[in-house]
Amino acid sequence: MDDLDARFQELVSQIGEGEQRRMREAAAKAARQAAPPASRRPSSPARRWALAVVLVLAVLVAAASVLAFRPELLTPEPAVRRIRPAPTSTPEPPAPADPFEGSPAAGYASGAAGFELPEPKAVGGLSAKEVGKGLARVRDLLTAAYLDPATLMGGEPRAFAGLADAEQRRKVTRAWVNSFAPGTTELATDVIKVRGEATLSRYREGARVKITYLVVYAVQPPGRPDQVVRLVTHARGSFDIFESAGGVRVWVESLGASATPVRCDTDGYIHPQFPASDPGQVRGTGAPRDPYDLHQPVGDGCTASSAT
To answer: CB neighbours of 241 closer than 8 A, spacing ≥ 6?
Structure first.
């Protein structure tokens, strides 16, 4: 009984005063209902004991009702363990490998800096300053022909046409620029490698600039970085610089480029030959040529090439 009394007192101590008051009222009501009709005979000890038991039971019933509606009085509130999520960090992708590494192009200049031109000098009746202006226009034309992003992706050669002499603009063709067949190619990197040379000589009443450059691209099929290839183009041509109507003019005498590895089918566009590409109907012939040979003579037709 001592253990029961202790447990009972512990339970009661957890009940608020208002609830205890309601419990006492409920116990008193239960006692009145359980009491026998009034009589003149004095109560016996047995009757008093029975009444006490009824009161205790009534209190227990009331307590059970409270506990039924408030089970937290018996069950301790579980401790809440707050777990903070570990900070997430997106690992940085590894830096892409240099697509030019392991090839001669790795040591070439990047972009327009590779279009090295002779130092301006007076020639053919032109001053050094006039020749310098002409050479600057030649470099701009080469940049538009071989580095302009829109032209490379198959767009119209507007950048080149906008720099050409006014009398040549309508004659500008895709043969004067590098253009990949639309939808077939994308640059694997913005870096384009250039190496070459140019000569300056007198030509009639002015000067002639002869150029030969290797322009090397890292290309891939759209969305296929696993298919990157180095594509080498060999540009050759000549430009005339002369003075007319008080100004310096630059005339495109000739300009064109060969490319490898590409399909030999010709439609005015460059069709790179990727590892998974259809080789096409026309195959290169002859002994393989070194695509990085700057002074290699121009071949006839579509010739075979060694790896780039």
So the answer is: 126, 130, 131, 134, 135, 138, 206, 207, 208, 209, 248, 249, 250, 251
Q: Are the beta carbons of 133 and 248 closer than 8 angstroms? A: yes
Contact 285, 304 (CB under 8 A): yes
* Residue 306 CA to its chain's centroid (Å): 33
- Give the span between the Cα atoms of 114 and 223, in whole angstroms: 28
pTM of the model: 0.68
Angle between helices 45-69 and 2-13 (to 10 degrees): 50
- 11-70, pLDDT tens digit by residue? 556 666 666 666 666 656 655 655 544 444 444 544 444 444 444 444 444 444 444 444
CA distances from 127 to 118, 223, 241, 253 (A): 14, 51, 11, 21
3-state secondary structure 34-103: HCCCCCCCCCCHHHHHHHHHHHHHHHHHHHHHHHHHCHHHCCCCCCCCCCCCCCCCCCCCCCCCCCCCCC
- pLDDT tens digits, one per residue of 232-261: 999 999 999 999 987 999 999 999 999 999
The structure tokens listed for 246 are 């008080």
**Phi, psi of 165, rounded to the nearest 5 degrees:** -60, 145
State how far the Cα of 87 lies from the Cα of 82, in Å rounded to an integer.
Answer: 15
Three-class DSSP category at 298: coil
Per the listing, tokens 């070459």 go with 196
Return the structure tokens found at 161: 């046409």
- Do residues 280 and 263 touch, judged by C-beta distance below 8 A? yes
